[in-house]
From TrEMBL:
Protein name: Acetolactate synthase-1/2/3 large subunit
Pfam family of the protein (one): TPP_enzyme_C
PANTHER family reported in the protein's UniProt record: 2-HYDROXYACYL-COA LYASE 2, THIAMINE PYROPHOSPHATE ENZYMES
Family: Belongs to the TPP enzyme family.
Organism per entry: Micromonospora marina
GO biological process: isoleucine biosynthetic process; L-valine biosynthetic process
UniProt keyword annotation of Nuclease present: no
Database matches in InterPro entries: DHS-like_NAD/FAD-binding_dom, THDP-binding, Thiamin_PyroP_enz_cen_dom, Thiamin_PyroP_enz_TPP-bd_dom, TPP_enz, TPP_enzyme_TPP-bd
Keyword Ribonucleoprotein attributed: no
């Protein structure tokens, strides 16, 4: 028998949200969405508020990514929605199942110039899987349930609903739709067998596993496939930690050697974008494994491209019954390269030089981060070092902006991570440029007693722009920030704590104080502006 719900639009929405496993609301207060707050208040439903709407959406995305369930952001009409669009777009590129509920000016006065009157749908439709205006209270449970089902159906992604004022404030009576988990997408068995044969028969195969492996709960299946076929594994995004660093098939430092020497490159759960040379690996054949047919690359022609539930595909790889080449020599070659790179990295992470080199910060962090710590990257140059020097020990412990590359995720991600994992270390790695986007939301963390550690790599420049521009033109413009700026004082003014570190030997004690503080704590590390992360441009 269908459960019936009676109440105003907020009550009806909350009932559908809870049925789908939503457990909290992130928002910035706005009158257009008061009924949603009223419903949360009456039900004791957790509500977290921020100082900029982008942080609400980023917090919801962090929950969605870490917990593999829907995250919810509630934004008021007009500028509330437009302020959240960068967060929506990041969620779209990251395949994060986020639901944004927006307020909307009253429909009965549409066109008369109501406060914040704007049609949001044309703006959000290109960066969501579904966008809809719900015009009656009775229709809200249906719309919320359908939107969340769409968000969770591979290829996952954000969805958007807005409610005109009279719809969300009105009282309605509606049935609560039954929740049906999305059915797994069955892959083409012939395509799966073709891919498995290519991998097993290759002399020098390599796996690159990305975020969808974690999102699709396929971590164990990945390990089983890699171990069965004896293939070295590299990871990116939330695929990091899928194999623990000590696993004999886990690699991180020898990627260049691997991709240069591989004869088959298997990319699983991540697009063939700029991070992977757009799928061009020289003479190597490419196997692209995706969670839905829509994610097959259109700009390259892989040798095989299985599409469907990643657990089913990887399980079939593990069970492959055909012939297999011996990969022992290839694995040993990569391990030699990996060990040599680790030795070079160890020297850099122990550098005693002042000004401090960014690598030294990560050397000290490796000593204090727990295996289950959630590490968040928000920045360009400084966070590039994090990808090189930090090796997550467990899956679901790494958050970065993803391929959209949007700065400002830090404080929202930190809020979502702290809500998701109240007892873990939460560490935000932030460039001083990125600090300008969201640091005010430290106040939200302080006020709601959500402690995190923020490490700012402060070199006083936009590092990924200043050095390349100088190389191209012989000069740079719009690439300088205030050197030595006291971001720790900003956090102190907002109710947190912090300190500035100028000497490498002071880093360890400062980080110890930060993780022991129990409040939002910013370690402001003055780094060498001449020490830029060495990488070529991927703007093409």
């Amino acid at each position: 028998m269908t459960e019936r719900i009676e109440g105003h639009g907020g009550d009806l929405a909350l009932a559908a949200l809870r049925a789908h496993g939503v457990q909290e609301m992130f928002t910035l207060s706005g009158g257009h969405v008061f009924p949603l707050y009223d419903a949360a208040h009456k039900e004791g439903f957790p509500l977290y508020d921020v100082r900029h709407e982008q942080s609400a959406v980023f917090a919801a995305e962090a929950v969605a990514k870490l917990q593999r369930r829907p995250g919810l952001a509630v934004l008021t009409a007009g500028p509330g929605v437009t302020n959240g669009i960068s967060g929506l777009t990041s969620a779209f590129f990251n395949a994060s199942p986020v639901l944004v509920l927006g307020g909307r000016a009253p429909q009965f006065r549409w066109g008369s110039g109501s406060l914040q009157e704007m049609d949001h749908l044309p703006l959000v439709a290109p960066v969501t899987k579904h966008a809809e205006t719900v015009f009656s209270a009775d229709d809200i449970p249906r719309a919320v349930s359908a939107a969340l089902t769409t968000a969770l159906t591979p290829h996952r992604g954000p969805v958007f609903l807005d409610f005109p004022l009279e719809a969300v404030f009105s009282v309605g009576d509606a049935g609560l739709p039954a929740v049906t988990p999305p059915a797994p997408i069955e892959p083409d068995p012939d395509e799966v067998a073709k891919a498995a044969g290519l991998i097993a028969g290759a002399s020098r195969p390599v796996i690159i596993a990305g975020s969808d492996v974690y999102a699709g709960d396929a971590v164990e299946a990945l390990r089983a496939a890699a171990e069965s076929l004896r293939v070295p594994v590299f990871t990116n995004g939330m695929g990091r930690g899928a194999l623990p660093p000590e696993h004999p098939l886990a690699f991180a430092k020898a990627r260049r050697v691997a991709l240069k020497g591989a004869d088959v490159v298997v990319v699983i759960g991540t697009p063939l974008d700029f991070r992977l040379s757009f799928g061009d690996f020289g003479d190597a054949q490419v196997v692209h494994v995706v969670d839905a047919p829509s994610q097959r690359a259109g700009h390259v022609q892989p040798a095989a491209a299985p599409a469907g539930d990643l657990r089913l595909i990887l399980g079939a790889f593990a069970d492959h019954a055909g012939g297999r080449a011996d990969h022992a020599d290839w694995i040993a070659e990569l391990r030699t390269a990996e060990d040599a790179a680790k030795a070079r990295d160890a020297e850099e992470m122990a550098a005693e030089s002042d000004p401090i080199r960014p690598a030294r910060i990560y050397g000290e962090l490796r000593k204090v981060l727990a295996p289950d710590a959630v590490t968040i990257g928000d920045g360009g140059d400084f966070v590039s070092y994090a990808g090189r020097y930090l090796e997550p020990a467990q899956p679901g412990t790494w958050l970065d902006p993803g391929p959209y590359g949007c700065l400002g995720t830090g404080m929202g991600y930190a809020m979502g991570a702290r809500v998701s994992h109240p007892d873990r270390q939460i560490c935000v790695l932030m460039g001083d440029g990125a600090a300008g986007f969201s640091l005010m939301d430290v106040e939200s963390l302080v006020r709601q007693k959500l402690p995190v550690v923020i490490v700012v790599g402060n070199n006083g420049i936009w590092g990924l722009e200043k050095h390349p521009m100088r190389a191209m033109y012989g000069y740079d413009v719009a690439a300088d920030l205030q050197p030595g700026l006291r971001y720790d004082k900003v956090v102190e003014a907002l109710g947190g704590a912090g300190e500035t570190v100028e000497k490498a030997t002071d880093l360890g004690p400062a980080l110890g104080r930060a993780f022991d503080s129990g409040v939002p704590y910013l370690v402001n590390v003055l780094t060498d502006p001449a020490d830029a992360y060495p990488r070529s441009s991927n703007l093409a």
